[in-house]
Design a protein that fits this description.
It is a single chain. By secondary structure, this protein is mainly alpha-helical. It has one domain. The protein is about 70% helix and about 0% strand. Helix 4 crosses helix 5.
Length: about 160
């Protein structure tokens, strides 16, 4: 369950928290996860034309970095999985878009599918969200939401 105690804006001065809070997008009072996913769009656009190998390696590195960043911000806020921590949404969206053609239609589809799986949290995403804590837990449920959305995206690529 996400917590949404107010986050001091001063945390953004620290690069660790600036990143974990999605460049500040996680400070939005309503739907910070959606705004965090929107913050992923320029990151995706910068990476979209990279080779599959380089793109994937960057995503894996961002996952590892995200575990660290999210844990540090969780420790600072003394709250597990604060709704303002949205680096996990950025990585989850990048996973959704692995090997998907670069077009606004696919970006919108990926955005909507990722948000759907991240919000609805079907099993085993919901189980991970409840059972795995800390930076790893924060990252894993969104990684799995990204994998689910990725599967649907690639099924659509095959059948559309």
């Amino acid at each position: 369950m996400k917590n949404n105690i107010p986050i001091p804006v001063a945390l953004l001065k620290n690069p660790i928290h600036f990143l974990s809070l999605g460049f500040g997008s996680g400070l939005m009072p309503k739907a910070p996860g959606t705004f965090g996913t929107l913050a992923a769009l320029p990151v995706y656009l910068l990476m979209a034309n990279l080779s599959l190998l380089i793109y994937s390696l960057i995503v894996v590195a961002m996952f590892g970095l995200g575990v660290y960043l999210c844990q540090k911000t969780t420790d600072e806020l003394k709250v597990h999985d604060h709704s303002g921590i949205v680096f996990d949404e950025i990585v989850g969206f990048l996973i959704t878009m692995i090997a998907v053609p670069l077009s606004w239609q696919w970006i919108i589809a990926g955005f909507m599918l990722f948000r759907l799986f991240d919000i609805v949290k079907p099993w085993p995403i919901s189980w991970l969200d409840r059972k795995v804590h800390g930076g790893l837990g924060i990252m894993l449920d969104d990684v799995l939401a990204g994998v689910f959305a990725l599967i649907v995206m690639h099924l659509a690529l095959v059948f559309i």
